[in-house]
Amino acid sequence: MLSKPGNWEKYYHGDDQERRLLRTYSYSDRVRYYWADPEIDAAAQKLISNLTDFSISENLLSRYMPEQYWQFRRGLVDASPMSLVQSKVREVIGVYAAACKA
Protein backbone atom coordinates (compact mmCIF):
# COMPACT_ATOMS: atom_id res chain seq x y z
CA MET A 1 0.00 0.00 0.00
CA LEU A 2 2.86 2.36 0.73
CA SER A 3 4.23 1.99 -2.79
CA LYS A 4 0.82 2.85 -4.31
CA PRO A 5 -0.74 5.43 -1.99
CA GLY A 6 -3.06 6.76 -4.68
CA ASN A 7 -5.42 3.88 -3.94
CA TRP A 8 -6.03 4.87 -0.34
CA GLU A 9 -4.49 8.14 0.84
CA LYS A 10 -7.52 10.32 0.08
CA TYR A 11 -9.65 8.06 2.31
CA TYR A 12 -7.30 7.77 5.30
CA HIS A 13 -6.86 10.89 7.42
CA GLY A 14 -4.87 11.68 10.54
CA ASP A 15 -1.27 11.55 11.66
CA ASP A 16 1.20 8.84 10.63
CA GLN A 17 0.15 6.48 13.42
CA GLU A 18 -3.58 6.86 12.67
CA ARG A 19 -2.99 6.29 8.97
CA ARG A 20 -0.87 3.21 9.73
CA LEU A 21 -3.72 1.79 11.83
CA LEU A 22 -6.19 2.54 9.05
CA ARG A 23 -3.99 0.81 6.47
CA THR A 24 -3.64 -2.22 8.72
CA TYR A 25 -7.24 -2.53 9.92
CA SER A 26 -9.31 -0.86 7.22
CA TYR A 27 -12.36 -2.36 5.58
CA SER A 28 -11.51 -5.39 3.48
CA ASP A 29 -12.99 -3.94 0.29
CA ARG A 30 -9.88 -1.77 -0.16
CA VAL A 31 -8.05 -4.94 -1.29
CA ARG A 32 -9.87 -4.76 -4.63
CA TYR A 33 -7.34 -2.17 -5.78
CA TYR A 34 -4.47 -4.61 -5.39
CA TRP A 35 -5.63 -8.06 -6.57
CA ALA A 36 -4.96 -7.26 -10.24
CA ASP A 37 -1.35 -6.30 -9.48
CA PRO A 38 0.92 -9.11 -10.78
CA GLU A 39 3.24 -8.80 -7.77
CA ILE A 40 0.32 -9.17 -5.34
CA ASP A 41 -1.08 -12.10 -7.31
CA ALA A 42 2.30 -13.85 -7.26
CA ALA A 43 2.61 -13.31 -3.50
CA ALA A 44 -0.90 -14.68 -2.91
CA GLN A 45 -0.15 -17.73 -5.06
CA LYS A 46 3.10 -18.31 -3.18
CA LEU A 47 1.26 -18.05 0.15
CA ILE A 48 -1.31 -20.65 -0.96
CA SER A 49 1.48 -22.89 -2.23
CA ASN A 50 3.44 -22.58 1.01
CA LEU A 51 0.36 -23.27 3.13
CA THR A 52 -0.43 -26.37 1.07
CA ASP A 53 2.71 -27.98 2.49
CA PHE A 54 1.36 -27.75 6.06
CA SER A 55 -1.60 -29.22 7.88
CA ILE A 56 -3.77 -26.52 9.43
CA SER A 57 -4.75 -27.63 12.93
CA GLU A 58 -8.42 -27.69 13.88
CA ASN A 59 -7.83 -25.44 16.89
CA LEU A 60 -6.25 -22.73 14.69
CA LEU A 61 -9.03 -23.13 12.17
CA SER A 62 -11.68 -22.80 14.88
CA ARG A 63 -10.04 -19.68 16.28
CA TYR A 64 -9.41 -17.74 13.07
CA MET A 65 -12.01 -19.17 10.67
CA PRO A 66 -14.85 -20.42 12.90
CA GLU A 67 -17.42 -20.78 10.11
CA GLN A 68 -14.96 -22.75 7.99
CA TYR A 69 -14.12 -24.90 11.02
CA TRP A 70 -17.77 -25.95 11.34
CA GLN A 71 -18.01 -26.51 7.60
CA PHE A 72 -14.90 -28.70 7.86
CA ARG A 73 -16.39 -30.64 10.78
CA ARG A 74 -19.57 -31.26 8.76
CA GLY A 75 -17.55 -32.38 5.73
CA LEU A 76 -18.63 -29.42 3.59
CA VAL A 77 -15.07 -28.20 2.97
CA ASP A 78 -11.66 -29.77 3.26
CA ALA A 79 -8.79 -28.12 5.12
CA SER A 80 -6.82 -27.17 2.01
CA PRO A 81 -5.89 -23.50 1.85
CA MET A 82 -7.79 -22.90 -1.41
CA SER A 83 -10.94 -24.58 -0.11
CA LEU A 84 -10.83 -22.49 3.07
CA VAL A 85 -10.19 -19.26 1.16
CA GLN A 86 -13.07 -19.93 -1.24
CA SER A 87 -15.38 -20.71 1.67
CA LYS A 88 -14.39 -17.49 3.45
CA VAL A 89 -14.98 -15.45 0.29
CA ARG A 90 -18.44 -17.01 -0.07
CA GLU A 91 -19.14 -16.16 3.58
CA VAL A 92 -18.22 -12.49 3.09
CA ILE A 93 -20.18 -12.25 -0.17
CA GLY A 94 -23.14 -13.71 1.71
CA VAL A 95 -22.99 -10.82 4.17
CA TYR A 96 -23.09 -8.32 1.29
CA ALA A 97 -25.92 -10.22 -0.41
CA ALA A 98 -27.96 -10.22 2.80
CA ALA A 99 -27.41 -6.47 3.18
CA CYS A 100 -28.69 -5.92 -0.37
CA LYS A 101 -31.94 -7.71 0.50
CA ALA A 102 -32.57 -5.47 3.52
UniProtKB/TrEMBL annotation:
This is D-tagatose-1,6-bisphosphate aldolase subunit KbaZ. GO terms for biological process: carbohydrate metabolic process. It comes from the Bacteria.
